[in-house]
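Hi support team,

I'm filing this because I wasn't sure whether my run with PBG finished correctly. The job status page said complete, but I'd like someone to confirm that the output block is well-formed before I use it downstream. Pasting the exact inputs I used:
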Amino acid sequence: MQQFKRHQRLRKNQAIRDLLAETALTKKDLVMPVFIHEGLKKPKAIKSLPGIFQHGLSSLPKEIERIQNTGVTAVILFGIPKAKDQAGSSAYDPDGIIQQSIRLIKSKFPDMIVIADCCLCEYTSHGHCGIITDQGLDNDTTLYLLGKTAVTYALAGADIIAPSGMMDGMVTFIRENLDKQQFKNTLIMSYAVKYASSFYGPFRDAAGSGQFKGDRKHHQMNPTQIREAISEAEEDIRQGADILMVKPALVYLDIIKTLHDKFTTPLAAYQVSGEYAMVKAAAAAGLVDEQDIFLEQMIGFKRAGAGTIVSYAATEIAPII
Ligand code: PBG
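And here is everything the job wrote out:
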């Protein structure tokens, strides 16, 4: 008789499949993005991200309560200020929209992990991620402002600062500023490997940076690169990043896997706005079951090596995990 292995024994029924599962996804792996728009009186649906809303301070506690009730334990905050200027000064205003939001969340939900996205693009009138001069984006002046912004977030009570602007040196600048102000235990989750991606399209609408018409190819990474991703990760670890993030997630699974195998630093993956919107559109057209698709994608991120997943589908998926 011919010898062959009966793999199907491993898949006999759900209990056996669960017993042998190599990869687990839990509610506690998930991070829910929250958009807070200064002065907004009631939640406003974001057209490009079905099911996601911008909140004002008045509806924020209800939204956090909703998130907490799904079992999700962490949020990442994005702010849309009333006023923007060339220097993005509302980003580092101690009473800016994010600083107020952090204080509000922490006062009512002390156990909710609050991650503050740290970039100037939502706060500058031109929509760029930093200070613009005749020479273009001024990396080094921007670093100084990111350090300042991070300290105001930490002072408000943020658990984790997440620099997302891909400025060279951002982690070391933020770490130094936090340490100087006695925030030695505030974590840094660096968007270490962030590609210049068309998958961010719907976010620009959500974050009110629709006025921005350019691209970010001179500071975000070229999708062709793997070795450069390793260099970015190495450098951010050296500068003191506690967690590395890869973004987008789905078409960069190879990057997640590479960093997972090479480094011991905890890894996060960001399933970005375009990835979410595409699933929603396909589901609305009756082509796929959105929950099954989201679950399968999240398992894929975990299998590749991501411990943490940022996703607009976090609160939709958590109850069914
Ligand atoms: C920058 C930032 C962006 C996203 C997260 N942080 C926008 C950008 O780099 O253009 C995109 C997230 C998404 O598309 O879901 N503050």
